Amino acid sequence: MNHNLYNLLLSSLLLVASSAQAADSVDYPDGYRTWTHVKTMVLHEGHPLENPFLGIHHFYGNELAISGSKTGQFNDGAVLVFDLLEYTTQDNASTEGDRVLVGVMVKDNARYPSTGGWGFEGFAGDSQSERLVNDGGQSCFACHASQKDNDYVFTHWRD
Amino acid sequence: MNHNLYNLLLSSLLLVASSAQAADSVDYPDGYRTWTHVKTMVLHEGHPLENPFLGIHHFYGNELAISGSKTGQFNDGAVLVFDLLEYTTQDNASTEGDRVLVGVMVKDNARYPSTGGWGFEGFAGDSQSERLVNDGGQSCFACHASQKDNDYVFTHWRD
Questions:
Q1: What ipTM was predicted for this assembly?
Q2: How much is the pTM?
Q3: Is A89 in CB contact (< 8 Å) with chain B?
Q4: Distance from CA of A34 to the nearest CA of B (A)
Q5: Alpha-carbon distance B119 to B81, whole Å?
Q6: Rg for chain A (alpha carbons), in Å?
Q7: Scanning every residue of chain A, which has its alpha carbon at the shortest distance from the alpha carbon of B58?
Q8: What was the pLDDT predicted at A15?
């Protein structure tokens, strides 16, 4: 194979790979801070998931996700956000600290068939571009698989 | 005074009193669960305010309240909701329980001049009618007065 042809082939492969990644990637959930708050929990030291999930967990959903959290069936386009904050406890009060990460689940059955129809991503701290999930969401899904009866979502709506 | 005249006078006085109460009363914040979530804190056993404020405290605001929480100045019509839930801690995770009360602050400088321009109310548990504040909000304001520089509000916006 001559050098030019090789370069052309390589460029084409990279383009395909890049397009494939873009097609599967999960967008940062712009504006989620004004979406509906579903619930909050706190994981303390000693919890099996403390690394990296120690902290205050807020869950937010867009309108499709809120509908899903009430029925246990999520339509394509539902987005759930898991906003993880550090916390400090002082004088018998626990208060929010810095953001650890923003976790995202996006429902799209066609794009994410191997992870229950959900795309998973994490964004480090306050970054909207530093991504944390590098296995196509398989490690996330390994835990969420237990929630098959609720469309792989742990979060349920409360009034 | 004859009996009929007495009854008429009494009825009129009750009507005036009832109107006065209605004019100052704080409405239940319909729909606040889909308002913007500002922050959360947890008060544990041993906190000076544990009775009656032990639990997970979620704070929500309508649009005017969110604007105010960013500037420290709240316009008339701002409504802040303090949603207090029980919590349980098990296996190093704290999760939400039943609702203890819904606290409300409504900004209206003309209606609530003696409490910093804020009307205060609490609704017991999931009730929208069982009211908890019976002193015109003076006991609430006694604590909020310390936050004069933030228009008597403890809650600040975080991104």
A1: 0.86
A2: 0.87
A3: yes
A4: 5
A5: 12
A6: 18
A7: A40
A8: 47
